């Protein structure tokens, strides 16, 4: 049989058992699914929604006491394990000896240096815990223009020390994060600071009866600046990233200078100053401040219109302000250059709740300044001139509206808000050109400590 007959016979034979097209397509799809599933490495059940890995674990409720204790113990064991992975003092000392032994000459001044080859050698000889610091990206990060391509030994060692300190602090803070979500509620931070007080020599003189007020004073700074949306929560990583925790732990230094203590919000003199001011303002001794009592804050030069807005927008109790609300007020007025403080004051200035200040808003607050100017027998100041100066300072994106972001971006936000709410600040601003060089410190608007200029030299 030749090949033509053979092929014809084969076609005829196969055609007899051929299936209808729909039936054939179904079989092909079934086979394709079977072989594709096997190729992916699992059967039908493996790709079912029933075997999706669990990614959400419900926190135990207050009634589930055993589950709560189990969770707390588990977290404690985990944190202890992480703590053991950190370098101790002896290991850090051995690291310094190795670095010093492998320094690369010549020295830059009095600073010992090391090149990349010796850097890797030290990494090989170091403890396993330290090896992850000896990476090319760490070396490159610390390069600072050395002609021999070296890095400073002390800079690298400080880098390691800083990392170890951050991890230690992170673990220490996590012990107070009872929910285990990576953030602090006010009560969590209060517990942390309360237990920290006995370890800070600079707070050794505080009476125990004052501890609750000190803790409130300290906690408010964290929440005022790190929780601008007032959610009642702060991420632990945000606490580590800011400088406030460093300021608080600076109080471990037994020889901290008087100047450093006065400039540190968390020091005993600073906390006593703020609380003492609050008590002095509270003339009726009811533990709260009325608008009339708050009007004597600083040099008593805040306008009544601004104070009205404070009591309209801020949390009060029967029209009076408590100590926590007062702390927010003080932090805003003493840090007017900070975005969080500008946000606080901007909300008070935004009387129409539109998210921006327009000519009407500016005029509303400046009228109170004009009334004080007239009261002191001074020549009337034209609002149009002040309005133009404000818009020139801020240079907003919209020439008719000033947003909070415009104020922050201008770096003039503290000056703008100060001349709208405080007659003293406006007077200093108006007379800035006639200030002698020795009075420059008084010309700083936004610092409550310099607001005595108006009180000492009021307009006649």
Automatic annotation (TrEMBL):
The keyword Repeat applies. Residues 1-23 have a biased composition (Basic and acidic residues). GO terms for cellular component: centrosome; cytoplasm; nucleus; spindle. Residues 1-25, 433-460 are annotated as: Disordered. Keywords: Calcium, Cytoplasm, Metal-binding, Nucleus, Repeat. GO terms for molecular function: calcium ion binding. It is found in: Cytoplasm; Nucleus. It comes from the Eukaryota. The keyword Disulfide bond does not apply. Residues 337-372 form the EF-hand domain. CDD domains: PPP2R3C. Its main location: cytoplasm. GO terms for biological process: B cell homeostasis; cortical cytoskeleton organization; microtubule cytoskeleton organization; positive regulation of B cell differentiation; regulation of dephosphorylation; T cell homeostasis. This is Serine/threonine-protein phosphatase 2A regulatory subunit B'' subunit gamma.
